[in-house]
Amino acid sequence: MSSLEIVSKDERKMSVKLKGVPLQYANALRRLCLNGVPVFAIDTVDIIENSSVLPDEGLAHRLGLVPLRTDLARFNEPSKCECQSETGCSNCKVMLVLDSGDTDVTKTIFTDELTSEDDSVKPTSDKIPIVQLAPGQRVKVECYARLGRGREHAKWNSSNIATLVETEKEDERILTVESTGALNPEQIILAGVDELGKNIEEFKRTIGELNE
Question: Is residue 114 within 8 Å of residue 98, measured between CB atoms?
Fold first, then answer.
């Protein structure tokens, strides 16, 4: 009989004991927890002004790697959204704006200056440095975030780490998931279990169609 038991958990990290779960399924769950659960990340950046020493491409890259809090119940993945639009809609895309304003001193711009049109999707920390500005320099950008999965790009990884280790008991393993902060670890594991179930059912249907 298969079972899942919580060993330990906090805001960022959670370990669960898997009993009676075949190794291939347990490892598939580990991979899904790492890069198969959708989370928000900045996908496109419109540079309105950038007089910093950081090139536009470098600025866009840094913004894309900022982990964003995610509400899976509120938003859809673009491919599954009813709008089916390249530009997206309020149910699948969120705009974030950064405007440093003018400065007469050298200062570092942090993620606390990155404002979101939807309060449920915002940086997991206000203290992530984005760019340093010298006097007279300015950065103004509009960013568009969407749900994605880590197998598409690492910026959509829902976990920093996801490990699976054997215990001393037969057919028992410990799955440990450390979140990026986009989702809490319990949400990641539950979503991973749900994704695994869907993948198994889809595989069964495919095999059934081949046998017909």
Answer: yes
DSSP string, 146-210: EEE-TTT-GGG-SEEEEEEEE-SSTTEEEEEEEE-SSS-HHHHHHHHHHHHHHHHHHHHHHHHHH
Residues in the chain: 212
The predicted model scores a pTM of 0.89
**Which of 123, 102, 103 lies closest to 113, judged by CA?**
123
Q: Give the CA dihedral 152, 86, 187, 96, nearest 10 degrees.
A: 100
53 DSSP 8-state letter: S
CATH topology of domain 3-37+158-211: Gyrase A; domain 2 (3.30.1360)
pLDDT in tens, 144-180: 999 999 999 999 999 999 999 999 999 999 999 999 9
Residue extents of the structural domains in the chain: 3-37+158-211, 39-150
For 83-101, how does the pLDDT look when each residue is reduced to its tens digit (9 = 90+)? Answer: 988 888 999 999 999 999 9
d(CA 9, CA 184): 10
DSSP-derived pairing of the beta strands 139-148 and 39-50: antiparallel
Domain covering 39-150, topology = RNA Polymerase Alpha Subunit; Chain A, domain 2 (2.170.120)
